Amino acid sequence: MSSSPERRLVILRHAKSDYPLGVSDHDRPLAGRGNREAPAAGRWLVENGFVPDYLLVSSALRTRSTCAWATSELGDEAPTPYIDDRLYEAGATEMLSIINETPDTVRTLMVIGHMPTVQDLSMRLASVESDEESVMEMATRYPTLGLTAFEINKPWAELDGRDAKLVSFVVPR
Q1: Residue 90: CA atoms inside 13 Å, Cβ hemisphere, count?
Q2: What digits encode the pLDDT tens for the residues 6-21?
Q3: Residue 116: which residues within 8 A CB-CB, separation 6 or more?
Q4: What are the recorded GO MF terms, alphabetically (predicted)?
Q5: 3-state secondary structure (DSSP) of residue 152
Q6: CB 38 within 8 Å of CB 69
Q7: Which in 33, 56, 91, 157 has the greatest CB count within 10 A?
Q8: Rounded to 10 degrees, what is the CA torsion of 81, 114, 121, 71?
Q9: Which of 155, 66, 73 shows the shortest CA–CA distance to 109?
Q10: Alpha carbon distance 23, 1 (integer Å)
Q11: Residues 49, 88: Cα–Cα separation, whole Å
């Protein structure tokens, strides 16, 4: 892959959530720790040049809250998130299909979702050119606020598997 990728993809697992009694899984809020740590994801995006121009976010409260906290660090560069109900219970194949619908004008896409889908999709996309240490770390553990950053040299509609260079896996806290 060239040193200047056509596109970048960030896959982010939501921040630490709470488990209040009587609250449905979809409506679970972030825990205090999640609220405190989520802005670190936004700071990582800015510091590493992965500021998204398009956001796809699961409709669950914890993913929407993670998005709000993380994008608060982006200032005027923060795009309006697109909340997609399909991402809430999507498996890796469905999440990839949703990513394939991304407009060609988008250069950096961030998707905020859930386990195990974020890890499964990241494993599916990681090409042989990927950073081996990051792949091994991501494959071993994908904790809350786990963030995988990819470089892609093809249109979103053609992204399929083993065709995205994983350049970084971090847990910004």
Answers
A1: 26
A2: 999 999 999 999 999 9
A3: none
A4: hydrolase activity
A5: strand
A6: yes
A7: 56
A8: 30
A9: 155
A10: 46
A11: 27
Distance CA(124)–CA(93), nearest Å, equals 9
Question: How confident is the model over 21-71, as pLDDT tens digits?
Answer: 999 999 999 999 999 999 999 999 999 999 999 999 999 999 999 999 999
Evaluate whether the domain defined by 7-106+115-170 bears CATH number 3.40.50.1240.
yes
- With CA atoms as reference, report the closest residue to 149 among 128, 171, 140, 160: 171
Cβ neighbours of residue 92 under 8 Å, at least 6 residues apart? 117, 120, 121, 124
- Half-sphere exposure of 76 toward its Cβ, with a 13 Å CA cutoff? 0
DSSP SS3 for 120: helix
Helix 117-125 vs helix 132-140: crossing angle, to nearest 10: 150
Domain parsing of the chain, residue ranges: 7-106+115-170
Q: Which residues contact 75 (CB under 8 A, 6 or more apart)?
A: none
